[in-house]
Amino acid sequence: MARTRLTPEREDEMYAAVLDLLREVGYDALTMDAVAARTRSSKATLYRQWGSKPELVAKALRSNKPVSLDEIDTGSLRGDFHAMLCRADDCQMEKDSALIRGLSQAVHDNPDLREALRELLIEPELTGLDQLLRRAVDRGEVRPDSPALKYLPHMLIGAFAARQLVDDRSVDQAFLLDYVDSVVLPALGV
Questions:
Q1: What pTM was computed for the model?
Q2: What pLDDT is stored for residue 6 in this prediction?
Q3: Torsion 109-107-32-98 (CA) sign
Q4: Average pLDDT, whole number, for the chain?
């Protein structure tokens, strides 16, 4: 069967509905029926466009990323990190943190979701981080053999995960900017 292409506006509307449902009910309780009802579409349309719930969720999360890391190049690693963090406001960071918390358990229980997230969200982000770090190495800001380079994704994800757990507070821009300056850059030798 031929795949009918949705308009970008309709696709964005559907992704927003998926993200809202994820925040409201979590991954396990999110159903294609609920997405179809919320978006006034058919389940058949959803499966034709996305194939599966994990793929739909991963693509909705990907659509939520307003900027690509390869669009950021300020001339310094600190500047790049700050530019990256300043692209999202505190409200968006809080929503993103809620999504991450909501998906963290689901990822362990759903291998299809884990694979879709790795392929559609994590891998592109890692590629963008690698480019950002490669430029910093090329500029001489970071040693190419710095042992911290391979742990950068862990450090950044850890900041999101630990803030709520340790401080009982949501991640915000001020926290992340200070975290980058106090933890990430010193670990990289910057």
A1: 0.71
A2: 80
A3: positive
A4: 85
**Comparing C-alpha atoms, which of 184, 133, 188 is closest to residue 157?**
184
State the pLDDT at residue 4: 62
Report how far residue 165's alpha carbon sits from residue 184's, in angstroms, rounded to the nearest whole number: 19
pLDDT value at 61 more than 70: yes
Helix H, strand E, coil C: the string for the chain is CCCCCCCHHHHHHHHHHHHHHHHHHHHHHCCHHHHHHHHCCCHHHHHHHHCCHHHHHHHHHHHCCCCCHHHCCCCCHHHHHHHHHCCCCHHHHHHHHHHHHHHHHHHHHCHHHHHHHHHHHHHHHHHHHHHHHHHHHHCCCCCCCCCCHHHHHHHHHHHHHHHHHHHCCCCCHHHHHHHHHHHHHHHCCC
| Spatial contact of 26 and 106, defined as CB atoms under 8 Å apart | yes
d(CA 157, CA 95): 15
- Cα distance between residue 39 and residue 56, in whole Å: 13
Separation between Cα atoms, residue 44 and residue 36, nearest integer Å: 9
Please give the Cα distance from 150 to 172 (Å, whole number). 25
In the predicted model, is pLDDT for residue 66 greater than 60?
A: no
The tokens for 70 are: 């390869």
% residues pLDDT > 70 (the chain)? 93
